[in-house]
Design goal:
globular; binds coenzyme A; alpha+beta; Aminopeptidase; 6 helices; disordered N terminus
Length: 202
Amino acid sequence: MTQARGLPQCLERLIGPEKAAAITTRRLMLRRPRMADAADFFAFARDDEVARYVMWDTHTHIRDSRRALRGILARTRAQGAETFAICPRDTGRLIGTIGPVWLDWDNRACEVGFSLARPYWGQGLLTEALGAFLGYAFQGLGLNRVEGQYDLRNPASGRVMEKAGMAREGELRQRLHYKGQYADVGLYAITHDAWRHQGSKP
Ligand SMILES: CC(C)(COP(=O)(O)OP(=O)(O)OC[C@H]1O[C@@H](n2cnc3c(N)ncnc32)[C@H](O)[C@@H]1OP(=O)(O)O)[C@@H](O)C(=O)NCCC(=O)NCCS
């Protein structure tokens, strides 16, 4: 695993009742969210620009953020896979999320979804977080394929997946219906084989 691809420097199973995975990268820690993150979550989920291309609506009250955190934790239990809080290593505070939108154990595949607070855009942080998530998906979960789709009006999201080593597989017309309209999406994916192969490059 190489630092350049943003893969985890350490992937460890913490000993504790929750057995939550925590991953550290050069600048980030990915850890299980907790209800105490609600205020930090609300601080960026109330931003219409952050919520524009995600499936959830802009949070208007901290209750929305608490509900979303409960949903994330319930999904983590149901899927048997982590949706992580993205946190700067120096503060440990939640500035974004990344995890499976859906996970198909039969075919060992998932779709990744993510969000990031606006003050942190444009610094390569999401690419770093996605690299770490791919390491978790392939090594921690034993998945074979990770895919991600993005609204074509939001090219930064596709660029993040490209930079993380995912391959563009095509475009799907009106694949999503959200925020009152259909959206064309671009599909990116990476298989375990392709990920391992990239990892062996200098
Ligand atoms: C999309 C998003 C997650 C990217 O996170 P980020 O940490 O800023 O991403 P990175 O800095 O790692 O990379 C962003 C890349 O997109 C590029 N980019 C930004 N705006 C772009 C645009 N309008 N068109 C094309 N590329 C764009 C950047 O130049 C950068 O690529 P580069 O390193 O080759 O220059 C973040 O901007 C965000 O949260 N947006 C709003 C919510 C969202 O869209 N969530 C994802 C839904 S799928």
